[in-house]
Amino acid sequence: MANWKFNLEQKQSMATSLTAAVAGFLVLVLIALSLFIFVRGGTFFWPQSIQAIVYQEQDGTYQSHFVKLDAKTMRVGEEILHYRFSSAEQLFSGQITLRKSSLISSETIPDLAVIELKNGGMVIAKVESIRDSDGNTLGMQEFELIQGRINQLVASTEFIRKGELAEIHRALASLDRRGVKADAPARVKLSKRFYELQDVLADVEQTLQGFVLTVAFANGTTYPINMQEISNVSFPNSMNLGDKLISAISSFASFISDSPKLNNTSGGVFPALFGTIVMVLLMTILVTPFGVLAAVYLYEYAPQNKMTALIRISVNNLAGVPSVVYGVFGLGFFVYVVGASIDEVLFSDDLPAATFGAPGIFWASLTMAILTLPVVIVATEEGLRRVPQSLRDGSYALGATQAETIFKMILPIASPGIMTGVILAIARGAGEVAPLMLVGAVKFAPALPVDGEFPFVHLQRQFMHLGVLIYDGAFHSQNIGNGSSFIFACCLLLLLIVLSLNLIAIFIRNRLRKQYAQN
Asked: Residue 9 pLDDT more than 80?
């Protein structure tokens, strides 16, 4: 009979092997998840080939479309194809899901185009013709020249609207306040100039309407698109590898510099990217001093009795509280109590319109600081614990006070541990969504929290956050489970931000560790 009893060395070896296996499994899961998001998100930027397909419907009829393949999936042993297409009825991204057996033919035609519109829409079609404002039919090689002319005309209309017309409106309003009569020469002169500019705008608008790009779909129907609405035209089937790489880089640059469109399912993410970074920076500035001071008190000053042990247990348990609870606390205490009190004292003239008594980026940052505070306290205490007691005793022997010893010697040596806590806080703060939706993050914010208007940083404003954008977009996107999409691109960007912030913090921590190791 086999002897199943293990000695102590064998038990320790088994425990080590089991721990290594679990750690290895978690690392593999993390790598697989990162690769999945990287591939799906990266596909959003990479130009996909366009195909002309013919397939048979269930009723036996044949359909033809120009399509872009989103994904291939397996269902009941058969490959399922998920396509996006455009037609006169579904101009922006209609969707087809086909069994591969129903596909009659598939062909890659070089001159099929992807036409990106300024409203975030995308048209997949063949370019039939380009017509200028004089009715002349031009070739595709004239496209960039025409787009340049259109941009100049649009810029001139914006200059008139925001410059001369705005000035005339201000002057007329001033005359109204002073009670100047309607037939006064100054008012007549302004009115005459106003109508002259309106005529100029009407002429320019008529000229812009004359630039038309006509596209043809696979079933032979054509559709005119005003070129003023077009942001880019590309021919992915004619691109080589270098062209596709340049196109992908350009798409990524537009993605991080443009605003979201079509209910947060298209366009760019600049406001959300900016709001996420500002919120994380504010949160880090708020949580670091509070967390470090709390840890210093608990480890260096507080008596090591049952009360201190109870506080430590409470701090550890707070790290496990669901994040939405912090959101409810932030909304109830920071917004409705503290914010409303600030409004009554400092902004009473604006009441009942709330200034700080409404969700905003400052309350969101403060709530996230409270949420991540236990992480910073625990990591800082651990850093303080690693400083040898002999250093403290040596400092006291030289006549230094406890405060001098802590702030001039202990804290610098423990700074790598503090940075570890900050790294963990940044990672959690950047990825949380639930509390932010209660205390300031919204699906669309008309203004950034930082701009050129005094006082430049507007802590009371609501803001956009990448996590909230992903959450909101997931409920509006119909193809998130099938293939590349705007949401996966947002996930990829959020992952890159968290990774970048962590790398910066790790770099600083290693510099500090090396500096104090040498000392």
From this structure: no
Beta-carbon contacts of residue 248 (< 8 Å; ≥ 6 apart): 42, 45, 46, 47
SS3 call for 100: helix
**Residue 332, helix vs strand vs coil:** helix
Instruction: Give the C-alpha separation, 10 to 363, whole Å.
Output: 54
Prediction pTM value: 0.78
Q: Are 441 and 434 in contact (CB under 8 A)?
A: no
Q: What are phi and psi of 305, to 5 degrees?
A: -120, -170
How far apart (Å, rounded) are the C-alpha atoms in residues 354 and 357? 5
Residue with tokens 């100054």: 186
Helices (H), 322-481: 323-329, 340-346, 361-385, 389-397, 402-405, 411-431, 434-439, 466-474
**Does residue 126 register a pLDDT over 70?**
yes
The rounded distance, in Å, linking the Cα atoms of 322 and 373 is: 14
Cβ distance 497 to 466 under 8 Å?
Answer: yes
- Examine the pLDDT at 236 and tell me if it is beyond 70: yes
Distance CA 402, CA 235 (A): 71
Q: What share of the chain is helix, strand, coil (3-state, %, to 5)?
A: 60, 15, 25
Residues 6+ apart with CB under 8 A from 438: 324, 327, 328, 330, 331, 359
Distance (Å, whole) CA 41 – CA 34: 10
**Helix segments in 108-142, DSSP class H:** none
